[in-house]
Design goal:
It is built from twelve helices and nine strands. The protein has 303 residues and is α+β, with helices and mostly antiparallel strands. The chain folds into two domains: 162 residues, Regulatory protein AraC (Jelly Rolls), CATH 2.60.120.280; 109 residues, Arc Repressor Mutant, subunit A. The strands form two sheets. It has a six-stranded antiparallel sheet. Strands 4-3-6 form a three-stranded antiparallel sheet. The longest helix has 19 residues.
């Protein structure tokens, strides 16, 4: 029996991520395993600081599609869609993959009108609207400060949090990820997008053509193309290519599988086509990418 959009929607439980700090605290600090029910393409009005403590995979931040590695640190602004996909084997569970901090940007902006000393943090939040990834050089220190927050409480906790934000605002060591900023999204649209992403991720090595995804989503190809472009900021076909090549990069870096096996797992039946697409997007062959990565696992900038 062919899947329907109703069946597709049940693969995950699409919903806005509801973010509520513990009573007496102004921001959320938590450690997440992977996968879990919130490990989906999502967006919310709160700002999110996201540290990858272990694992590698594909990051989706606005219209950005690229690799993440252990130690990757990103701050995502209000309503900017995001997801970090670890390409796990069936049944694999990664304990404590993520350290997440979430807070209300409007509250921070309001506080800056009363306490001008923290007004520079608003510059950070403005950049975060496009997604900011810190370089490994400064991410190490920021990650340590994030971990320490879990052992603090009260005014010391809040003071350390403000200090962290101030340091992030002051550093020039960052990369803007997304060329597109997003506005708020209606619940039904979010559900539709999450269902589409669930189908793509589950079938990336198979048929995820525009026609097939439109059929699953009960949309016309034209409607899906426009809807996808509006919400992701990417052309559908280009997004699929970026997602497949990013997954290939993660597998090249973390497994001993042959290039041909990886190509097949990423949806390429023709190895020549895979090599050509990889060279176009990464500027090197898959074998060269693996060799360079193994030579320097701590490279300062991911290709």
């Amino acid at each position: 029996m062919r899947e329907t959009s109703h069946n597709l929607a049940r693969l995950q439980s699409p919903q806005f991520e509801r973010i509520v700090p513990v009573a007496g605290e102004s921001f959320v600090w938590r450690i997440d395993d992977y996968p879990w029910r919130r490990s989906v393409w999502n967006c919310h009005p709160e700002v999110e600081i996201h540290l990858i403590r272990q694992s590698s995979g594909t990051a989706l931040i606005g219209d950005f599609v690229g690799e993440f590695m252990p130690g990757d640190l990103t701050i995502v602004g209000s309503w900017l869609p995001h997801d970090w996909i670890s390409h796990c084997s069936p049944g694999q569970h990664i304990v404590g993959r993520d350290l997440v901090i979430q807070f209300d940007a409007k509250a921070m902006d309001g506080a800056a009108t009363i306490f001008p000393e923290i007004s520079a943090i608003n510059d950070l939040l403005e950049r975060a609207a496009s997604g900011v990834r810190f370089t490994p050089t400064v991410a190490v220190a920021f990650a340590s400060a994030m971990e320490d927050l879990g052992n603090l409480s009260g005014a010391k906790r809040f003071g350390a949090f403000l200090s962290l934000l101030a340091e992030m605002a002051a550093t020039p060591e960052y990369q803007i990820l997304s060329g597109t900023r997003m506005s708020s999204i209606r619940s039904k649209e979010l559900q539709k997008m999450q269902a589409i992403f669930s189908f793509i991720q589950s079938n990336l090595m198979g048929d995820v053509s525009l026609a097939r995804t439109a059929e699953i989503s009960e949309m016309t190809e034209t409607s899906l193309s426009r809807f996808f472009k509006k919400r992701v900021g990417q052309n559908y076909a280009q997004f699929i290519t970026l997602l497949r090549i990013s997954k290939a990069c993660a597998l090249l870096a973390t497994t001993n599988e042959t290039v041909s096996t990886i190509a097949f797992e990423c949806g390429y039946e023709n190895i020549s086509n895979f090599n050509r697409r990889f060279l176009l997007l990464r500027g090197c062959t898959p074998s060269e990418y693996r060799r360079v990565y193994l030579q320097d696992r701590n490279m300062a900038k991911y290709p």
